[in-house]
Amino acid sequence: MSTGTDLIASLASRQNLADYQKKHWHGSFADYLDIVRQNPKVTRTAYQRVYDMILSHGTEEIMVNKEKGVRYKFFDDFECGGQDAIFGLDRTLLNLVNILKSAAHRYGTERRVLLLHGPVGSSKSTIARLLKKGLELYSKSDDGALYTFGWREETLDGSESFEDCPMHEEPLHLIPAEFRTALLEQLNAGTNNSPASDDYEFQVTIEGDLCPYCRQMFNERMERYDGDWAKVLDDIRVRRLILSEQDRIGIGTFQPKDEKNQDATELTGDINYRKIAEYGTESDPRAFNFDGEFNIANRGIIEFIEVLKLDVAFLYDLLGASQEHKIKPKKFAQTDIDEVIIGHTNEPEYKKLQSNEFMEALRDRTVKIDVPYVTRLNDEVQIYQKDYNSRKVRGKTIAPHTLEVAAMWAVLTRLEEPKNAGLTLLQKLKLYNGKTLPGFTEDNIKELREEAEREGMHGISPRYVQDKISNALVAHANERSVNPFMVLNELEAGLKHHSLINSEDVRKHYKHLLSVVKEEYEDIVKNEVQRAIAADEDSLARLSGNYIDSVKAYTQREKVKNKYTGQTEEPDERLMRSIEEKIDIPESRKDDFRREIMNYIGALSLDGKKFDYKANERLQKALELKLFQDQKDTIKLTSLVTSVVDKDTQEKIDIVKGRLIRNYGYDEDSATDVLNYVASIYARGDVKRGAH
Questions:
Q1: pLDDT of the residue at 688
Q2: Is the CB of residue 270 less than 8 Å from the CB of residue 289?
Q3: What is the pLDDT of residues 172-223, one digit of tens each?
Q4: Distance (Å, rounded) from C-alpha 234 to C-alpha 655?
Q5: 31: Cβ–Cβ under 8 A, 6 or more apart, which residues?
Q6: 432: left (phi > 0), else alpha (psi -120 to 50), else beta?
Q7: Per residue, what are the HEC states of 209-251?
């Protein structure tokens, strides 16, 4: 067994000391100017850095409502294993990144508060968390490198120490205003074609001045060195800056609390009363803690949680910080900041903002980004699969369709009733999810989305569904698997006490949607069991061959040769119609359908290919339903609900169960459960003709 020393040695061998030293580089101001010449991007503004950070993860082209769009892979959160991945909000994220792009170009949005607005649990906090986490990681990379500086101080014993700038400032702020133009001309010479990203050309600029603390240090040294600025720079040590929310470096988070226990100094810093005796006055910056959230978030990003719950005193600071890029610490002049300000709020708070005439200034300085709930079923399913999968749920299986039916119900609560009277809410859900329905084109789906402007801004939160899935897992701890009905029952039971449902009509609507989902689940499992029963490849191939022989003879007005008797016979009209009726081909359309089949076979033949019924989805479905109809009585599925099953039936049932496990992802327990459930439907005589 390894000793503690062995374990430490093993872990120590994994260290990358060269990487550590690169991330903790320090050097002179002259060294920093050399770095800027080689890589001007180190001087980017916070908005430029955040935008480039998102682009650095790559993009892919997608279609959003029949229009070309871009999907940003950054929001897949691959670096952290998809823990905070965002699903189904491509339009929202496209809008957000376009605003960041505009800010990176300095088109005006860099002087706004980015306000993520949407219902509870719609991923607003997750988006903000992703940006903060991503910026931390980006600052550790070569592409995301940035730098700050500190002041050399001599200690009593004659050794040197360095006092870092409390606001992690850009070292170029040390350049006096009268020298900046000349320096920038030299730094930018030949860099016109040096893009910070693929989108915009980048040139070094110097925006803002030293913070009060660094200004004091600078002025003291200018006096000490008789105005020799070059000597002042000898007291400067530039170092690599790694952003960190935990260390409160470049990333801040502010959350409103009780008004009595919170004041504006939490944003802009406060006097250090212990140091007043040492420095003699409150207005000495060395007797001030520049550790408010705005101070420490300089060069990075600040998140305001529930921003519209802020007291008015805080809002004044927020207005100046966004529009002027300045804050006003107590007893000091306005101080420059460079940071992305992002806040989030929910619908009721935003409505208050709109109706409050005193908040006009804030409304004018915000860019609202709607973050709705997901309205595409597959995306909602992915949200739940992230937390409920075989890696995270140990010792228990989640039966097929369990997460799907929960997601289906959640999405249905968010959809608006279609104005098209011939379209149900469930059909609308399927259209949004990519399913084709007769008579509906991509343009129709785009129109459906456009006519429902508030879709996704109301309904059930994913958080509620996640809570109920968790309840089902715990409540059925003795069961080896959790099935859809366990979760649906939890979802329904929770509606009685749901704190965000304030209308009995809404509660009734949600309960009705649960019954819609249960019916849809019935159809899904009946279809799977039917296909499992009819999945006898040889029988399907024989049935397909007989059908095609009859169709060929019918369309060419010939007779069919009976393979057993050798006699020629008329095409088997009864067989053809029994198959075609399974997919709702009316008598009046049978000739067209049969000709389509023969034309398809003829086209394959010209290409030297052989016809396979599996290549035609409608025909395969019809054949499976026909075979199921022929075989279900021989399997005696209804006998499953009795306690006695004969050996022959049991063997056939085991074959069907094996197909459910192999083809549809069931395990032994869930396959048995679903067979029993479908058998009980048959026992009630409740099965509908065909499958939906």
A1: 47
A2: yes
A3: 999 999 999 999 999 988 655 444 445 567 899 999 999 999 999 999 999 9
A4: 84
A5: 238
A6: alpha
A7: CCCHHHHHHHHHHHHHCCCCHHHHHHCEEEEECCCECCCCECE
N- to C-terminal Cα separation, the chain: 61
Interatomic CA distance for residues 351 and 460, integer angstroms: 20
Q: Return the exposure string of 18-53: e unless at least 16 CB atoms fall within 10 Å of the residue's CB, then b.
A: eeeeeeeeeeebeebbebbeeebbbbbbbbbbbbbb
Task: For residues 226 and 359, give the distance between their C-alpha atoms in angstroms, rounded to a whole number.
Answer: 50
Are β-strands 67-72 and 59-64 bridged in parallel, bridged antiparallel, or unpaired? antiparallel
Angle between helix 504-533 and 425-432 (nearest 10)? 60
Angle at 47 between CA 46 and CA 51, to 5 degrees: 120
Q: Whole-model pTM?
A: 0.84
Give dist(CA 580, CA 106) in Å, integer. 64
> Contact at 8 Å (CB) between 283 and 325?
no
Closest CA to 250 of 292, 304, 297: 297
Alpha helices by DSSP H, listed for 537-589, are 537-555, 573-580
Contact between residue 214 and residue 163 where contact means Cβ atoms under 8 Å apart:
no
Write down the residue that tokens 């599996």 correspond to: 614
Q: Return the closest-CA partner of residue 121 out of 391, 447, 418, 465.
A: 465
The one-letter amino acid at 466: Q
Amino acid letter for position 208: G
Between 425-432 and 402-414, two packed helices, what is the crossing angle to 10 degrees? Answer: 110
Angstrom distance (rounded) from CA 149 to CA 477: 57
Burial class (CB in 10 A: 0-12, 13-18, 19+), 447: middle
- Using CA atoms, how far residue 628 sits from 230, 353, 541, in Å, is 90, 61, 14
CB contact at 8 A, 556 and 602: no
Residue 68 has pLDDT above 90, yes or no: no
**pLDDT by residue (tens digit) across 3-38?**
888 788 888 888 888 888 889 999 999 999 999 999
Residue 442: pLDDT band (50, 70, 90) is confident
- Strand locations in 618-668, DSSP E? none
The total of other beta-carbon atoms located within 10 Å of residue 141's CB is 11
Report the helix count and the strand count for the chain, using DSSP H and E.
28, 19
pLDDT given for residue 690 in this prediction: 42
